[in-house]
Amino acid sequence: MTGLLAVGGVVALSLAVPVHSDEARATSAKRRIIPAAEVLNHVSRDSVWVVVEGNVWDVTEFLDAHPAGAEVILEHAGKDITALFNSIHPPHTLTHTLPPEARIGRLDPATPIEAAFGDENEAEYERARAKLPPVSAVINLEHFERLAKQLFGEDGKPWGFFSSYADDGASFAANRASWSFLRFLPRVLVPVSVVDASTRFLSQPSSLPIYISPTGLARIGHPGGEFNLLRGAARAGIPFCVSSGSSASLEDLYEERDRFVEGGGERARVWFQLYVRSDRTETEKRIRAAVEGGAEAICFTVDAPTIGNRESDKGVHAKPVDGSKPKDKLVRLFDADLKWDDIRWIRSLASGVPLLIKGIGSAADARLAYEHGADGVILSNHGGRQLDFAPPPVATLLHIREQYPEVANDPKFEIYVDGGVRRGTDVLKALCLGARGVGLGRTFLYAHSTYGEEGVVRACTIMREEIETGMRLLGARTVEELKPEMIEVLDGLLGKQAK
Question: Are 230 and 268 in contact (CB under 8 A)?
């Protein structure tokens, strides 16, 4: 799920943001007091002002650079958008994104102004959460999804974003269906009273062979946002990959990680999802911040030179209010001209930190990642949200095994699969075929949205129970005993490349 995301006409900016000087900010802070009537004079494309946290911002120059297009800003021009803005964005997004001179003054508190609110349904959602069955009653991951749909409703903004896919949803559907083309060949008369589902990702321990994939805007599903995911992952002993579209800043998440440890909790294992922005200086700052904060991996996302055609995500394709055509939302902010040689540049900024290439959809690109020195790849079609009819990740894994066995079998090159996993047996199938681990994204969004941190922990508990049960029935005592010969591939999963 991409790091620049629109929901209900509001966009979360990437965590990769510039930092302006303290001196410039101090100068900006001395701007004049502005009455509401003056703000209301700036509500057209020629001049657009908004109010956030009492500050009046001139966002005119940012209109055409806004990821969801100018219409999103124009819709709320001349209003106090504090509640709406803060319900989506990390703190200080504006001060880190816009130049200091864009903050032109303070709103006169004696002249109130119309406010644009966040999701007005949150109070209703909270009442609905109180009526859900106890989290211990959730029996599988699909159950979380059904409860989330019940909670938000099909027309709810959170559901519209979390469940969205590109075009007709062919890749989205194929991700789930792909696992049914794999059957087990179990071994019996193997002592399995004790099984161990733990493993190591990038030389670090993980209690389960799964991790939380980067998923943006967790806060629209639950006020606890990414903090729920961070703490839940820490309690379960699995990694959490922070999205570039997180509704909590990376710095705040690091602080929460440390507070959790000080309170007696386990230290969360944080990975960082990286989108390279057109301004490389900004990207360099975020890589350094991720590394200095203790990120255990950089997940370089490469399958989003532009945003997919997500018709089902109602916010992304909002109708322009000024008659202009919707503009490309990613190509202006993110670098659409990345090359394989950029791996060397990222390495130079994150020396010693493992680098995974996320968004690989072909065996040929997996081979190139291997040749260019990446530590591994994440096979993914972005949850079916980018190029429709891109292959399901497990099919790509099989192609790698067939075409480049030296890549698939190199223990120093780790392959992860992310797409359509809903059962512990899906995880076991991936591991049998040589994957080091499996990422789950939407699943944890649904679990967190319905039950907060406890939902994340419960989802991990369900996966542990299913994985350990499957290992016993398959005849494997450790993940190392899961082998390709335990799987048969049915016709219909793999195609033949055109020539």
Answer: yes
pLDDT for 441 equals 96
Check if the beta carbon of residue 156 is closer than 8 Å to that of residue 122. Answer: no
In 3D space, the residue among 477, 476, 451, 478 whose CA is nearest the CA of residue 186 turns out to be 476
E strand or H helix at 212 = strand 210-212
End-to-end CA distance of the chain: 32
d(CA 195, CA 475): 10
Quick check: 247 and 220 in contact, CB under 8 A?
Answer: yes
Cα dihedral sign, 140-424-495-175: positive
Q: Which residue's structure tokens are 């681990």?
A: 437
Among positive and negative, which fits the CA dihedral 468, 471, 476, 479? negative
What's this model's pTM, rounded to 2 decimal places? 0.84
Q: pLDDT tens digits, residue range 29-46?
A: 456 899 988 989 998 888
> What gap in Å lies between CA 333 and CA 306, rounded to an integer?
10
CA angle 448, 454, 455 (to 5 degrees): 40
| Rounded CA separation 210/47 (Å) | 49
* Mean predicted confidence (pLDDT) in 69-96: 75
Question: Which of the residues are catalytic?
Answer: 382
Q: How far is CA 90 from CA 115, 217, 305, 369, 456, in A?
A: 19, 10, 23, 32, 21
Tell me the pLDDT band of 440, cut-offs 50, 70 and 90.
very high
Considering only CA atoms, which of 202, 176, 263, 267 is closest in space to residue 493?
Answer: 176
Cα–chain center distance at 135: 24
Cβ–Cβ under 8 Å, residues 45 and 322: yes
Q: Is 34 helix (H, G, I), strand (E, B) or coil?
A: strand
Q: For residues 42 and 152, what is the distance between their CA atoms, to the nearest angstrom?
A: 35
Residue 25, Cβ neighbours under 10 Å: how many?
13
Query: Is the pLDDT higher at 115 or at 471?
Result: 471
The span from the CA of 157 to the CA of 67, in Å, is 18
- What does residue 303 show for φ and ψ, rounded to 5 degrees? -105, 25
User: How many other CB atoms are there within 10 angstroms of residue 350's CB atom?
Assistant: 20
Chain segment 257-302, per-residue pLDDT in tens: 999 999 999 999 999 999 998 889 989 999 999 999 999 999 999 9
The whole-number pLDDT of residue 472 equals 98
| d(C-alpha 266, C-alpha 203), whole Å | 18
